[in-house]
Design brief:
347 residues; Rossmann fold; 2 domains; seven-stranded mixed beta sheet; 13 strands; binds S-adenosylmethionine
Length: 347
């Protein structure tokens, strides 16, 4: 993680076993690194500044999973609207519903505008695919990664920085239950415990990693997905470049975005479009993304990614509560990884 190519070693297993480590420590053996990375609830935290991550995420890392919905509701009322707990429950509700509502017998949804539709369309457009491992970046509570594991033959890894969401994904993987709060109104949430099928689960895992500093060697993955993550990261171009770095030549990235830029997530200077209407792309995020994915077309083009296919406007719905859902129109692109012109030449 400090820029070495060293492979992390499993230094301690304190819960679980070697096949499924629930709690333990990973260690970087490089002499100038020696960094330790915790594994909690089956989720390795392999992030660049692990101490800062642990400090910033302490309430999530140490949160209890044994609280009944009754007491959780009372604690939610005590914390009130706008609290950190309220924000976490809203995220878990929106993405829990978005990913698993179609499997919940008590809340049958139409499934229209789901992230699974985006994944399906992306996979169609990305054909033919190379065999090999798949990475879902910004996996949230995990359903697209489950779908990828069911369809692909290789390893599938879902990564995200939100530990509360990763914990939902990790429990779904280990116990076959997607458990999340479903917001009805205000501070009123119903706990959902949705049983899921897990074909391919033995080839699937969820890790805490930063989309801007993926801890993988160059040319590792045959497929990466980044569904609705581009406008959530501090440096979207860096995200694209990192996806290009970890893909094998000929591998593909499926990327969708509603371009819902906000300064809280991304400083305005780093937005892809959405400002500077007088410039070459007229402020268009779509045009700028296309240029970035066309080597040589723009001074900031990614040299290792080439636009392969796209769909201009696909529906994506994020449910907030019983009477409010946000409807997005999402731009989906598939890009193919090229040999790095500055990297070692093959052959
Ligand atoms: C809008 S949600 C999309 C989730 C999921 N892909 C979907 O479409 O349902 C964005 C996700 O990206 C994650 N995320 C944001 N910044 C990230 C980063 N730097 N590294 C990894 N994940 C990040 C968030 O925690 C969140 O789960």
């Amino acid at each position: 993680m400090d820029g070495t190519d060293e492979v992390l070693v499993l230094a301690e297993v304190t819960r679980g076993g070697p096949e499924d480590v629930l709690e333990g420590i990973l260690h970087c053996p490089a002499a100038r690194c020696r960094q330790e990375y915790p594994i909690l609830d089956g989720i390795p935290l392999i992030v660049p500044r692990v101490r800062a991550y642990v400090q910033d995420n302490l309430p999530h890392l140490l949160s209890r999973s044994d609280i009944t919905p009754l007491l959780e509701g009372l604690i939610g009322d005590c914390c009130g609207p706008g609290s950190a707990l309220d924000a976490t429950r809203q995220y878990l509700s929106s993405y829990g519903v978005g990913h698993y509502d179609d499997l919940d017998p008590e809340t049958p949804s139409s499934g229209a505008g789901s992230v699974l539709d985006l994944l399906e369309r992306g996979l169609e457009l990305a054909e033919p695919l190379l065999p090999g491992p798949t990475l879902d970046v910004g996996c949230a509570v995990g359903r697209p990664a489950f779908e990828l594991a069911a369809r692909q033959q290789g390893l599938v890894l879902g990564v995200d920085l939100n530990f509360a969401m990763l914990r939902v994904a990790s429990r779904a993987l280990r116990e076959g239950i997607a458990s999340y709060p479903r917001r009805r109104v205000g501070l009123v949430y119903d706990r959902r415990e949705v049983p899921i099928d897990r074909p391919g689960a033995k080839r699937l895992d969820f890790w805490a990693c930063d989309a801007l500093a993926l801890p993988f060697a160059d040319d590792t993955f045959a497929l990466t997905t980044s569904l609705n993550v581009l406008d959530c990261v501090a440096d979207p171009r860096q995200h694209l470049s990192t996806l290009g770095r970890v893909l094998k030549p000929g591998g593909k990235v499926i990327l969708s975005s509603p371009y819902d830029w906000s300064p809280g997530a991304t400083p305005v200077e780093s937005w892809l479009g959405g400002h500077s209407q007088r410039g070459g792309e007229g402020g268009s995020s779509e045009a700028l993304l296309r240029a970035l994915l066309s080597p040589g077309a723009h001074e900031a083009s990614i040299p290792t990614l080439r636009l392969f296919a796209e769909a201009e406007a696909l529906p994506w719905t994020v449910r907030i509560h019983d009477r409010y859902s946000a409807s997005y129109s999402v731009h989906l692109v598939v890009a193919e990884a090229l040999q790095d012109p500055d990297g070692p030449q093959s052959g």
